[in-house]
## 1
Amino acid sequence: MSTDAELFTIGQLARRTGVAARTIRFWSDIGLVPPSARSGSGYRLYDAAAAARLDLVRTLRELGLGLDVIETVLSRARTVPEVAAAHVAVLDVQIRALRLRRAVLSTVARNGHTIEETLIMSKLSQLSARERQQIIDDFVDGVFAGTGQENPDAPAAGIARGMRQLPADLPDDPSPEQVSAWVELAELVADESFRQRTRSMALAGQDATASSAPGQGETPEPDQPGYQETIEHAGQAVAAGVDPASPAGQAVLGRIVAPGTPADQRAATLRQLETFTDARVERYWQLLAILNGQPVPPSAVPAFEWLIAALRASLSQPAS
């Protein structure tokens, strides 16, 4: 610097840069923008280099960096690219949290949850991937204990593996449906009656062959015997409101189960259907599909529940 004309007071620097005078004074006090000189009266003066330094500090602050981080940049302890990269990582976490919060609030606005339900939803949705997986692992371990799931070739092992398949993390921008699905799944596996029902199915499945009813395997399998017939004929009967016990209902049953099937075989089929048909178990698989961004299979349970009622009615009728 050669003359005082090249120096600026705090007020002049504030007007030149648009940064408030009190902010310049504070940054100067903590050493981020030290004065270049002092006037005869002791006032702080700043040159063009100080003005450029001030502009850098303002820019970094607008990007959200803390004053301590800015100090390391200005002292060359860290480069601007290094700081920027670290800050991007922090922003990514903050953005994800905001998106998750938005998804929770969207779900609340749409479904009208109470304050208590909203708090539970928020807490559950913000669990880490490991914490969420642990909830499901504890559920599966309890359900399949003693069913041979430790043997990878055992029937229960494949079902247990499927029931553990949570996504590694909620999407960066989860939909309200995915937030709701996770909360519903957490509530479902915490329900003791559901745990007991699922365990009874797992134990019964140890000695059972593949069933045509939903709930036996990972999902209702379209290639299982009787599946397509049930979906087609019983599904149409459900849609039309046909009484399973009525003559029309029994006629539909005859398209699924051969009319000449002995009563003991019908009774065995009925027991198997009653054991492995459960709307909540089917819902478990649907929720996993939502969380994993997969197509949600249509519900097969209503058709199989209609078939169960029709079989009961056929067994209660006198033999012709």
Note: Residues 32 and 68 are 10 Å apart (CA to CA).
## 2
Amino acid sequence: MFDDLLEANRRYQEAFQDTGLSGVARRELVVLTCIDSRIDPLAMLGLEPGDAKIIRNAGARVTDDALRSLILATNLLQARRICVVQHTDCAMTGRTEAETRAKISEARGVDAIGWEFLSTTDQMGAFRKDLERIRGCELLPPDVEVGAFIFDVRSGALNPVDPAG
């Protein structure tokens, strides 16, 4: 089932050279973005491997685990900037939690009650609450810079979001 990936890795290994990069973020940047396969975080932001830490989850939401990674990146891996990038046409927007649970329950034949998928019908409202969660986290350095953006999956444009509305 994964033979294609193993074969691709064999080809990759033939040209692979250890870059000698350390585990710190060379550009002092950590990026939180969505798992959407239309997003290539490095290319989108003009970055190279080693420039930034990349965190991905469905909807680019500030979950407990995303926040844990932000805390580690800023305190141990020299990240001084946090870039949160959501996007247009996201599958996590436009439906309620109940609707998402119902779709998943129907698809799997198992009740999804108790799961939190963080779907929202108000992308910008949820985005701003996530940004407040970052800014209110006492374990993040007080001088960390936080940027918020919406990536347009049709044009490639990265549009700044005003956290205040």
Note: The longest helix spans residues 3-15.
## 3
Amino acid sequence: MNPTFGVCNLSLVSLRTEPSDKSELCTQLLFGDHFTLVEMTEKWSRILTAFDEYEGWVDNKQYALINQTEFDALTNINSILALEVFHKAAKSNTRSILNLLAGSSIPHTVDGFFYLADDRYKLEGYSIDPNKAEFDSGISNAAMFYLDAPYLWGGRSIFGIDCSGFTQMVFKQFGIRLKRDAWQQAEQGTTLGFLQESRAGDLAFFDNEDGRITHVGIMLNNQQIIHASGRVRIDSIDTQGIYNTELNRYTHKLRIVKRFN
């Protein structure tokens, strides 16, 4: 029987819309992200991610195969890497050291060691177990970790991130699982009646001329929002939308505000 599961065993891997290096980036896998294999070709695999049920194509050389037991174990893992630029993980019996990124999923460690697929690693530092109870006190600082990170369509790291990747990775620090795209996230949470009711950690969603939700950001208070647009930035917001003082105009039209905690 062909293997049907895999796990990302590199720091950051591209997931593409088509099986080609020239294809558009649709999202990224971080170390420890696991998935179901939907289709395999000689070079590419079409996968469905376990975390957010997102589908795309990954290079066969950029992941490791795992079995059902390993897949289930990874699904039950809650530990992730906290908000630091790099976390080093040394692969045992080699000189290979991976620089892992914030939000990467880490199997249970014993004396700093953990296993992923067939490899043993030594984590320099520590992982955390996200706690939703810390959301209210920690959400603003978590969002600020990504401040000035460059915008990258499909990105999920401090080195390049898009609007919904930003909200997803920040919320992951508190154990709140968001879908990948802004329109999907807009289907989660509880809708607020008025912008003035919003508080730090609420998500504001914005639509285009066709009424499609195309953008999302994290409220810092009921007058400021942090979001990925060109870079992760802080802007003013009112009932009309986001106002960019550098451009002296509104850039995003407000649709709804939702609460997730």
Note: Residues 135-144 form the longest helix (10 residues).
